[in-house]
Amino acid sequence: MHLLNQWTDRVAGASIKSVVPMIDYKIPKSPEYYAERIMFVETREEAENMVDLAYQRPLSHIGFDTEFRYDSPGVVIDKRSTVFDPRSIRPLLLSLAMTEPFGDGGGRLYRFVIDLRNRELLPHLRKIFQLPYHFCAHYAKVELFCLWKLGLAESPCIWDSFIFEKALHLGRYHHKYKIQNRKDEMQTILAKEEVSEKKKFSYSLVASCQRYGITYAMENSKERLQKSFLIHGGEKFSKEQIEYSAEDAVAAAKIFPLQIDKAARAGILRHCEKVEMDWVTTNSRIEWDGVRVDVGKIESVTKVLESCKEKIKKQLYDEYGICNIQSHKQLAEFFKSCGLLNKFKIKGKYSFDKEILKKNVSLHPSIPLLRAARRASDLLADKIMDPRFIGVDGRVHADHRQLGTDTGRQTSRWPNFLGLDRILRPLVIPEEGYGIGEVDWSQVEVGIAAAIYHDTALIDMFNSGDVYSAMAQKFFKSDLLENDLNLPGHEFKKKYPKFRNQMKSCTLGIIYGITPIGLAETLRTTKNKATTLFDQFMEMFPDLKYVLESTAQTSGIRGYGCTSTGLRRYREKLGRVSRWERNWLTNHPVQGSAAVVFKDAGNRLMKLYKRYDARIVIPLHDAFIFEAPMDCFEKVTEITEHVMCETLQEHFPELHPQVEANIFLPTCWNKDGDGYVLERWIEELEVSLKEIIK
DNA sequence: GAAGAGAGCGCC
DNA sequence: AAAGGGCGCTCTCTTC
Fold first, then answer.
1. Is the CB of A509 under 7 A from strand C?
2. How far lies A530's CA from each of A346, A505, A516, A536, in Å?
3. How far is the CA of A408 from the C1' of B8 (A)?
4. pLDDT digits (tens, 9 = 90+) for A253-293
5. Under DSSP, is residue A204 helix (H, G, I), strand (E, B) or coil?
6. What is the rounded distance in angstroms from the CA atom of residue A291 to the CA atom of residue A430?
7. Termini Cα distance of chain A
8. In chain A, which residues from 605 to 664 place their CB closer than 7 Å to nucleic acid strand B?
9. Does nucleic acid strand B have an atom less than 7 angstroms from the CB of A474?
10. Helical H runs in A272-362?
11. At what angle do helices A295-320 and A366-381 cross, to 10 degrees?
12. Among A406, A405, A403, A404, which Cα is nearest to A570's?
């Protein structure tokens, strides 16, 4: 019936229009004419001409940039940063630099600046972004926001010169290099100079252009002009504003071929093309979609936590004279006056951290209060509790930073969803009619370490299911009952958690480069026992120890560690490899490759999710938290599981990956279907406070 | 007064 | 001599 209606509509529509559209024979556009000037596009006719030229000329790529303002005032983080709600973006101008290369190496640029306030031009822009060329921008995220705000689809082929510069310089200027001990004053001075040199290193468009020898004409007026758009009213754009807008697109267009060359030379071209540049869109989309938070719960929780915190602080002050629990100095003075200070001594320093407070909890009645107050203020200080971060669409749009780490992982901030306290996770909720689910890879870094370092024993154990159980079954053979030697992983995990945990610590120890002393600390055992355990453990993986050592050495000589796709993390300089460098030279290939496969999977999911109106909410290093309509929730879960497994297998065919889905409670983000951790924690706190405080 | 270091919490 | 990789964020305290 529905179909029939559509059909009759169409027939009716057709009869109104003229029978056959006239073919409009195009007159070739003069390339010289367009190459000479910046075309400011305000009318449909001008936009049509632009599209015609783009169709007629043999282009290679298109640089683009947008100018915009925000309609919401933004949240001031500190003196240097203010964060704006991406959904309140108001696109003003789009600039394009279409590049036509010549055979001899030169080329011609056609520059257009389009007034985005005229919505009649959008159908023409849609055609532009369907052109099969690379679209190059510097920090494409905001450009994508502008397109999405206008309801335009992005090009499937984005090149982000900012992200490329980040990828190219991973590991350079790492902060740990500047705190190395300098032997004399001269070295200290030199070090300081070095650091201030590095401060100047920037990924900005101007700085990047300089590195490639591209002249950027409007360097000195850039800041002023950028600002002029942020406070733009409705007035006509000035000639200078239009020129500036075009200049950024031109710079992006010019830097692209030079970056491609550089990428090839640095061995990361394929990595960039296959994974990193697609992730620009995926990552921006995650930020654009944002997450919904439970405002009511946040309000009530804040109230309760604040009142608890106040009560504790009052008690600590009234009874013990401690006025600031955050002050290391004051705590040291206080415990000194009680004669307990020596109980807090560790490695020659005094510490009042969580662990040592826990150890000393029974020594003094103030200690449980300190612990509770700390946790309460930490929870209260999380930016997820701040309603100012909620955008005009009612959702929170954190800053998801691509290549935020030197291994290639993501970071997030304002709020930091990737580091969100477990008990605060249920504050993340779905829209009406939607559900939240999570799928994570099981022990993915272990599998990747096994594959990268070609240790067949470790690969086999990974493939057997629960890798740590498999290890424990071999390692503790003589301590186990005959029947339990072949127990399935998940059953073994329940029956022998202690054995399994020891194996887990050892395994992560390999990946992170632990020492026997470190292992002894985590397992709370003696150095000798830890050493024996670790040595015997390594005997299970005869190839691994050697490969790790030789990897550290060769990478040290070469100057960088490398993921499976060739993405490099550089040392500051050649020479003796420090312990820390050795650790990350062997860890980066594992962590970095995991990040690569994760992005690859995310890129695929993003495309597949579209037809289900689903979205990735949080990319959590080895897990995707997604939001999907309830009527296709299972289907989306299935797709997520499938894609994650397949992608990992494509990168590492020798692995048989497993994923775990948490879809037990789709009404909020949670762990193991437990949505009330926060409430329970608060309840327990209140009960214990009643006992302590009169 | 701003900026950075350090301690300490949280996450994978 | 230190002693596990990668982070964000808040608070205190010191330094320039």
1. yes
2. 20, 11, 6, 10
3. 26
4. 999 999 999 999 999 999 999 999 999 999 999 999 999 99
5. coil
6. 8
7. 74
8. 620-623
9. no
10. 277-289, 295-320, 328-337, 354-359
11. 150
12. A406
What's the rounded Cα separation, in Å, for the pair A286 and A144?
Answer: 12
- Strand C proximity: list residues 362-381 of A with CB under 7 Å: 377, 381
Q: Which of A643, A656, A651, A650 is nearest to A565 (CA)?
A: A651
Residues linked to residue A629 through DSSP beta bridges, in sequence order: A434
**Which position has the token pair 């999911």?**
A605
d(CA A172, CA A159): 22
DSSP conformation letters of A100-125:
EE-TTS-EEEEEEEEETT-GGGHHHH
Two tokens, residue A309? 């915190």
Interatomic CA distance for residues A559 and A307, integer angstroms = 54
* pLDDT 10s digits, A299-332: 999 999 999 998 998 889 888 888 888 899 889 8
| pTM of the predicted protein model | 0.93
Bond preceding residue A58 cis, omega within 30 of 0: no
Per-residue exposure over A118-144, b if at least 16 CB sit within 10 Å of its own CB, e if not: eeebeebbeebbebebbbbbbbbbbbb
| Strand C neighbours among A 573-632, CB < 7 A | 579-580, 583-584, 587-588, 591
CA distances from A315 to A65, A311, A370, A577 (A): 58, 6, 10, 52
User: At A419, which amino acid appears?
Assistant: G
Query: Helix A205-212 crosses helix A239-265 at what angle (to 10 degrees)?
Result: 50
